[in-house]
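Chapter review: from sequence to fold.
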Amino acid sequence: MGKLAFILGVSFGSLLLGYGVRILLRSFAESGRTEIVSKNIKLIATFVLVLAVGALNSRFAVPNGAAPGLSPYLVSCVVWGIGLGLGGTTGYAINPARDFGPRLAHSILPIHGKGKTDWSYAPIPILGPAIGALLAAYLIKFISG
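The C-alpha cell string follows.
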C-alpha cells in the first residue's frame, strides 16, 4: 500500500507541477496579469500548502507525529518554497488576509497621491486559495480514508 501511495503521489505531483509550469509560462508570455492565471496559481499554491501541512502533521503518514518543534520549521520551509516558486507571478498572498487587509487599508486611508485600489482583482486572492484548500482537504480525506 505504501509503494502504491508513493507512486500515486509522485504521479499526481508531477501532473500538478506540469499544470503549474504551463500556467506560469503562459503568464510570462502574456503581457499583464489575467484573473484566470492568477486564480489558478493561487489555487495551486494553497493546494500544495494544505496538502504538505496535512501530510507533515498526519498520523497516517507519521504514526508517532513529527518531532517536537520540527513541524513549524517544515511548514515555514513549505511556505517559503511556495513563495519563491509562485510568489513572483501573483504576489506572496496565499493567505487571503495578506491581500485583502492592505487593499482595504489602501482604499480607506487618505494617502496623498495613491493609485487605484483595483477592487476588481480583490476576489482572486480569496477564491483561489479557498478552492485550493478545499480540493486539498478533500484529497487528504480521500487518501486517509
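Two observations follow directly from the output. The chain has a mean pLDDT of 77. The chain has one domain: 2-144.
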